[in-house]
Amino acid sequence: MQELKVDDIRSIIIRIKEIVDAHQDFLMQLDSVMGDGDLGFTMTKAFAAGAEEAVQSAENIPGKFLTRIGMVIAKAAPSTMGTLVATGFMKGGKALGEIATIGPEELAKFFQAFVSSIIERGKSAPGNKTIIDSLYPAASALQEAADHHETLANAIHAAREASLHGLEASTKMKAQHGRAAYYQENSIGKQDGGATVGTYLVEGFYQHLWKSENEL
User: Fold this and answer.
1) What's the confidence (pLDDT) of residue 175?
2) Closest by alpha carbon to 159, among 112, 93, 212?
3) What residue segments make up the domains of the chain, in order of their start?
4) Which is nearest to 111 in space by CA: 44, 204, 41?
5) Which of 182, 193, 199, 201 could pair with 30 as two cysteines, CB 3.0-4.6 Å apart?
6) What's the number of CA atoms in the CB half-sphere (13 Å) around residue 21?
7) Phi and psi dihedrals of 128, rounded to 5?
């Protein structure tokens, strides 16, 4: 598969929902250590709404479709993480403009805008033990793959590896934002729920692309 169309994005959103659903309890467990314990519920609610919109939407422009997903998530899950994820989808979708298909360069552009918008909205940065710490490396890996003219499947494979390494690295960081920041040094060594969610977003793209590759 060399490009993603709206039907592919639709399947990816549904796949992310399935991944989040399967890990709801785990996210709740992570969030109960340094947060208020409702991250799993918030994310399942967010992507239930996103998946419902994906199934119902007649939009055929990928960027507009992704922007619409963000708008629905914002309404369904107006929490801190819900708002950040929604903002990412809206800004990422807007960055794609009117293009009909998404290749490696466009996917890199989407994730770069996704991460940049979260950095701006959350007033955070890489290294602060947040969702940024798994998504920023993924976006960078996608850009590097696009610059080297890698296939779409290889690009998202590199992004997945980078996001997982970013999650692992974030475990050693000290939390700087949200309720987790209250724990200061005690947050070091604990897995961050937001960074974990970031890996699930990338995983949805990865599973769809590699499933499609293996079916060829």
Assistant:
1) 57
2) 112
3) 6-215
4) 204
5) 193
6) 11
7) -100, 10
Residue 70 tokens, joined: 């963000």
**Is it the case that residue 126 has pLDDT exceeding 60?**
yes
Q: How high is the pLDDT of residue 211? A: 76
The DSSP secondary structure of 87-153, one letter per residue, reads HHHHHHHHHHTT-S-B-HHHHHHHHHHHHHHHHHHHT--TTSSSTHHHHHHHHHHHHHHHHTT--HH
Q: Dihedral of CA 11/82/203/67: which sign?
A: positive
CA angle 191, 198, 94 (to 5 degrees): 155
Tokens representing 210?
Answer: 């590699």
Gap between the terminal Cα atoms of the chain: 9
CB 111 within 8 A of CB 136: no
Give dist(CA 38, CA 179) in Å, integer.
12
Cα 35 from Cα 135, distance rounded (Å): 20
In terms of pTM, does the model score above 0.85?
yes
User: What is the per-residue pLDDT across 29-39, written as a single tens digit (0 to 9) for each?
Assistant: 988 876 677 89
Superfamily the domain 6-215 falls into: DhaL domain (1.25.40.340)
Burial class (CB in 10 A: 0-12, 13-18, 19+), 184: exposed
